[in-house]
Protein backbone atom coordinates (compact mmCIF):
# COMPACT_ATOMS: atom_id res chain seq x y z
CA UNK A 1 0.00 0.00 0.00
CA UNK A 2 2.89 2.29 0.69
CA UNK A 3 4.00 1.90 -2.92
CA UNK A 4 0.67 3.32 -4.14
CA UNK A 5 0.81 6.52 -2.02
CA UNK A 6 3.83 8.14 -3.70
CA UNK A 7 2.40 7.37 -7.14
CA UNK A 8 -0.97 8.89 -6.21
CA UNK A 9 0.73 12.00 -4.79
CA UNK A 10 2.79 12.41 -7.97
CA UNK A 11 -0.38 12.17 -10.14
CA UNK A 12 -2.11 14.77 -7.94
CA UNK A 13 0.81 17.22 -8.30
CA UNK A 14 0.89 16.77 -12.05
CA UNK A 15 -2.83 17.32 -12.34
CA UNK A 16 -2.64 20.49 -10.15
CA UNK A 17 0.14 21.99 -12.29
CA UNK A 18 -1.79 21.25 -15.49
CA UNK A 19 -4.92 22.84 -14.07
CA UNK A 20 -3.06 26.01 -13.01
CA UNK A 21 -1.27 26.33 -16.34
CA UNK A 22 -4.46 25.75 -18.28
CA UNK A 23 -6.34 28.38 -16.28
CA UNK A 24 -3.72 31.07 -17.03
CA UNK A 25 -3.49 30.44 -20.74
CA UNK A 26 -7.19 30.05 -21.54
CA UNK A 27 -9.07 32.89 -23.19
CA UNK A 28 -12.74 33.43 -23.07
CA UNK A 29 -14.40 34.39 -26.33
CA UNK A 30 -17.83 34.66 -24.78
CA UNK A 31 -19.71 37.90 -25.28
CA UNK A 32 -19.86 40.19 -22.31
CA UNK A 33 -23.44 41.40 -22.55
CA UNK A 34 -24.09 40.46 -19.00
CA UNK A 35 -26.32 37.43 -19.43
CA UNK A 36 -25.12 33.94 -20.02
CA UNK A 37 -27.37 31.00 -20.78
CA UNK A 38 -26.32 27.63 -19.49
CA UNK A 39 -25.05 25.21 -22.08
CA UNK A 40 -27.68 22.97 -23.61
CA UNK A 41 -27.31 19.40 -22.39
CA UNK A 42 -28.03 16.62 -24.85
CA UNK A 43 -28.63 13.15 -23.56
CA UNK A 44 -27.65 10.80 -26.33
CA UNK A 45 -29.04 7.27 -26.26
CA UNK A 46 -26.76 4.30 -26.68
CA UNK A 47 -28.13 3.60 -30.13
CA UNK A 48 -29.15 0.56 -32.11
CA UNK A 49 -25.63 -0.56 -32.90
CA UNK A 50 -24.82 -0.93 -29.20
CA UNK A 51 -27.82 -3.14 -28.57
CA UNK A 52 -27.10 -5.23 -31.64
CA UNK A 53 -23.48 -5.70 -30.56
CA UNK A 54 -24.54 -6.67 -27.05
CA UNK A 55 -27.30 -8.99 -28.35
CA UNK A 56 -25.03 -10.83 -30.79
CA UNK A 57 -23.00 -12.39 -27.99
CA UNK A 58 -25.82 -14.32 -26.23
CA UNK A 59 -27.45 -15.08 -29.58
CA UNK A 60 -24.26 -16.65 -30.92
CA UNK A 61 -23.83 -18.69 -27.72
CA UNK A 62 -27.44 -19.87 -28.02
CA UNK A 63 -27.08 -20.82 -31.70
CA UNK A 64 -23.81 -22.63 -31.01
CA UNK A 65 -25.40 -24.58 -28.13
CA UNK A 66 -28.47 -25.52 -30.14
CA UNK A 67 -26.53 -26.51 -33.25
CA UNK A 68 -24.31 -29.04 -31.47
CA UNK A 69 -25.25 -32.69 -32.07
CA UNK A 70 -26.68 -34.59 -29.14
CA UNK A 71 -25.33 -37.60 -27.33
CA UNK A 72 -24.79 -40.79 -29.34
CA UNK A 73 -24.75 -38.85 -32.61
CA UNK A 74 -28.33 -37.57 -32.37
CA UNK A 75 -29.32 -34.80 -34.73
CA UNK A 76 -29.15 -31.25 -33.41
CA UNK A 77 -32.25 -29.29 -32.46
CA UNK A 78 -31.89 -26.99 -35.48
CA UNK A 79 -31.49 -29.98 -37.82
CA UNK A 80 -34.61 -31.64 -36.36
CA UNK A 81 -36.54 -28.37 -36.64
CA UNK A 82 -35.52 -27.87 -40.28
CA UNK A 83 -36.52 -31.47 -41.04
CA UNK A 84 -39.96 -30.86 -39.50
CA UNK A 85 -40.43 -27.79 -41.67
CA UNK A 86 -39.31 -29.70 -44.75
CA UNK A 87 -41.59 -32.65 -43.94
CA UNK A 88 -44.52 -30.30 -43.31
CA UNK A 89 -43.90 -28.58 -46.65
CA UNK A 90 -43.60 -31.91 -48.48
CA UNK A 91 -46.81 -33.14 -46.84
CA UNK A 92 -48.70 -30.08 -48.11
CA UNK A 93 -47.16 -30.44 -51.56
CA UNK A 94 -48.31 -34.08 -51.73
CA UNK A 95 -51.75 -33.15 -50.45
CA UNK A 96 -52.08 -30.30 -52.94
CA UNK A 97 -50.93 -32.57 -55.77
CA UNK A 98 -53.53 -35.22 -54.82
CA UNK A 99 -56.24 -32.57 -54.55
CA UNK A 100 -55.36 -31.16 -57.98
CA UNK A 101 -55.39 -34.66 -59.49
CA UNK A 102 -58.78 -35.40 -57.89
CA UNK A 103 -60.23 -32.14 -59.23
CA UNK A 104 -58.91 -32.88 -62.73
CA UNK A 105 -60.41 -36.38 -62.60
CA UNK A 106 -63.74 -34.98 -61.40
CA UNK A 107 -63.76 -32.44 -64.25
CA UNK A 108 -62.98 -35.22 -66.74
CA UNK A 109 -65.77 -37.43 -65.35
CA UNK A 110 -68.23 -34.53 -65.40
CA UNK A 111 -67.38 -33.88 -69.03
CA UNK A 112 -67.94 -37.56 -69.84
CA UNK A 113 -71.30 -37.61 -68.06
CA UNK A 114 -72.55 -34.49 -69.82
CA UNK A 115 -71.47 -35.61 -73.29
CA UNK A 116 -72.26 -39.36 -73.07
CA UNK A 117 -75.10 -40.81 -75.09
CA UNK A 118 -78.00 -41.55 -72.78
CA UNK A 119 -80.28 -44.53 -73.03
CA UNK A 120 -83.93 -43.69 -73.65
CA UNK A 121 -85.07 -47.00 -72.13
CA UNK A 122 -86.11 -47.01 -68.49
CA UNK A 123 -86.72 -50.32 -66.80
CA UNK A 124 -89.85 -50.10 -64.71
CA UNK A 125 -89.61 -51.94 -61.43
CA UNK A 126 -93.29 -51.92 -60.53
CA UNK A 127 -96.46 -51.36 -62.59
CA UNK A 128 -97.91 -48.72 -60.28
CA UNK A 129 -95.42 -46.24 -61.69
CA UNK A 130 -97.95 -45.54 -64.46
CA UNK A 131 -100.73 -44.70 -62.04
CA UNK A 132 -98.94 -42.55 -59.54
CA UNK A 133 -101.36 -39.69 -59.86
CA UNK A 134 -104.23 -38.90 -57.54
CA UNK A 135 -107.09 -41.40 -57.69
CA UNK A 136 -109.63 -38.60 -57.05
CA UNK A 137 -111.14 -36.26 -59.63
CA UNK A 138 -109.88 -38.28 -62.61
CA UNK A 139 -112.16 -38.01 -65.64
CA UNK A 140 -113.37 -41.28 -67.10
CA UNK A 141 -111.08 -42.85 -69.69
CA UNK A 142 -107.96 -40.94 -68.64
CA UNK A 143 -106.20 -43.94 -67.19
CA UNK A 144 -104.86 -46.29 -69.83
CA UNK A 145 -105.30 -50.02 -69.60
CA UNK A 146 -101.95 -51.38 -68.39
CA UNK A 147 -102.90 -55.06 -68.11
CA UNK A 148 -100.35 -56.02 -70.80
CA UNK A 149 -97.61 -54.11 -68.97
CA UNK A 150 -98.49 -55.85 -65.70
CA UNK A 151 -98.43 -59.25 -67.39
CA UNK A 152 -95.00 -58.51 -68.91
CA UNK A 153 -93.49 -57.60 -65.58
CA UNK A 154 -95.09 -60.55 -63.80
CA UNK A 155 -93.57 -62.88 -66.38
CA UNK A 156 -90.19 -61.19 -66.00
CA UNK A 157 -90.42 -61.58 -62.22
CA UNK A 158 -91.31 -65.26 -62.47
CA UNK A 159 -88.35 -65.89 -64.80
CA UNK A 160 -86.00 -64.14 -62.39
CA UNK A 161 -87.31 -66.18 -59.44
CA UNK A 162 -86.92 -69.42 -61.42
CA UNK A 163 -83.34 -68.52 -62.30
CA UNK A 164 -82.54 -67.78 -58.63
CA UNK A 165 -84.12 -71.10 -57.50
CA UNK A 166 -82.15 -73.00 -60.11
CA UNK A 167 -78.92 -71.33 -58.98
CA UNK A 168 -79.64 -72.17 -55.31
CA UNK A 169 -80.44 -75.79 -56.21
CA UNK A 170 -77.14 -76.11 -58.10
CA UNK A 171 -75.17 -74.58 -55.19
CA UNK A 172 -76.61 -76.90 -52.47
CA UNK A 173 -75.27 -80.51 -52.39
From TrEMBL:
GO terms for cellular component: mitochondrion. InterPro entries: Nuo17.8. Transmembrane segments: none annotated. This is NADH-ubiquinone oxidoreductase 17.8 kDa subunit. PANTHER family: OXIDOREDUCTASE 178 KDA SUBUNIT, PUTATIVE (AFU_ORTHOLOGUE AFUA_8G04320)-RELATED (PTHR42100). Residues 1-40 are annotated as: Disordered. Residues 1-28 have a biased composition (Low complexity). It comes from the Eukaryota.
Amino acid sequence: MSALRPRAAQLARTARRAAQTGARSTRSYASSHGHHEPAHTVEEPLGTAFYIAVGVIPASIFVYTVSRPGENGELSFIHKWLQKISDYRNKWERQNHLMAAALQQAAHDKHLLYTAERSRHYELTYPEVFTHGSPFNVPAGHYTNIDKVIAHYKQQHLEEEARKAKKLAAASP
